[in-house]
Amino acid sequence: MKAKLQQFMIGRYGLDDLGRFLNIFVLVIMLLSSFLFPQISGVAIGIMFIGLFRIFSRNTNKRAQENMAYLRVKNKITGKFSTQVQKVKSRKTHRFFRCPSCKQTLRVPKGKGMISITCPKCHTVFKKRS
Predict the structure, then answer these.
(1) Residue 43 Cα to chain centre, angstroms
(2) SS3 97
(3) At what angle do helices 17-35 and 60-89 cross, to 10 degrees?
(4) pTM of the model
(5) Which of 10, 13, 18, 30 could form a cystine bridge with 63, CB 3.0-4.6 A?
(6) CA-based radius of gyration for the chain
(7) What pLDDT, in 10s, does the model give residues 34-58?
């Protein structure tokens, strides 16, 4: 049975990040429709068919482009949060400054006294106390 499924999936796109997101989204909509809004179950079924279409599609280039567009949007949203999480995690050992000319965020070690900081992006030099 496993070999037949593998043979069937040869040349097909399969599951990717966008497919996983669609599956989770369908699950959430189904749960909401069963408890609160029974009218939206049709939307969930439609999204489920789109996900299945993507999994069994043979147009892998188009599906990869869709996935890359999804990842760009996802990274714009989650990138800001991950940067803030990294700042919180390293706040005991590092300080963060903004370059006065290009506004790039720079990380320098704490406890070094007055230091001269060079921005790697615009090469502006400024002094701050770490």
Answers:
(1) 24
(2) strand
(3) 80
(4) 0.64
(5) 13
(6) 24
(7) 888 888 888 889 999 999 999 999 9
